[in-house]
Specification:
The protein contains 4 helices and no strands. It is an all-alpha fold and 153 residues long. Helix 1 (3-21) runs antiparallel to helix 2, helix 2 packs antiparallel against helix 3 and helix 2 packs parallel to helix 4 (126-146).
Amino acid sequence: MSLEDVKALDDSLTVLKADFDRKDYKAVLAAAPALMSRVGAAQESIASRKAAEAARAANLTDNWNTLSTQVPEIVEAVNARVESLARTKKFPAGMNAAGFESTRAAAGEMTQSWQKALGAFANSNMEEAVNSAQAARQKGTEVMSTLQMTPSS
């Protein structure tokens, strides 16, 4: 239901009230069923939108609940591995120092995305929280692959 639809309903009600005030009951009785039908359609539209929004919110909450358990584990594992490699300077096969620095930067992006997700969640912005957490998980998965980590390492 758009703003124009609400205005059209309001305009119809105004006309109906004017007819009533003029005691033109014949016009009121003629227009009332159509207006009531439009009001019913508006109620259905609103109920449908509310149900869709509730389903969307539930989906975001489910996604957040999953991500909020997965992503911290990924962030912790990746950052621990990056710190270990930075100390030892023993990089995975095929990785040089420049490649490691690029991977380290990607790990930093992952951590920033996760922090952004936590901030959005704290501010009740579930859509941004889920999007940022998904970005963090994706970046973490990429870094894990680059570092030749298995999901449980």
